[in-house]
Task: structure prediction
Amino acid sequence: MPITPDAKNWTWVLDRACPECGFDAQTIQGPDVADLLRREAAVWPVVLDRESVAERPDENTWSALEYAAHVRDVARLGDYRTGQMLTEDDPEFANWDQDATAVAERYNEQDPRVVAAELVAAAESLAARLDSVHGHQWQRPGRRGDGASFTVDSFARYTLHDVVHHGWDVRAG
Result:
């Protein structure tokens, strides 16, 4: 059963701390994101080993498995979009409907062990790409179709919030 889509524009997390998970992007620099991303990804295999991994806590909240598949795809997309910013001049990112993807890819029916391995691998790939960024590359721009603009630095921190926040979601749940 689909969940009501989240229509919030979460870019505000770059300007102030998230009141839910406590993430504060202003206290983090782009070069620090890779190690933090690896640390956050490391919690997911334990989460995905739970017996109740595919159970939704309520009708409006994803299961831990759905969150994990989403985080995996966020890391994959983050890696791709970071690559675009590093190789293209101010790319406009293709729209990604995370809720449609969750339904189409049947997140809650995926094998938790496979998702765990894929999530860790996707986070490592993004972290490795971020480890390769130096100097002025952190300021290379990219933008979403809705007008939200990023630099490699701000996009790395924005993506990290997604990973941290959903880790908080499943620990809090």
The longest helix spans residues 64-87. The chain is about 50% helix and 5% strand. The domain at 35-50+61-172 is CATH 1.20.120.450 (Four Helix Bundle (Hemerythrin (Met), subunit A)). Strands lie at 92-93, 141-144, 149-151.
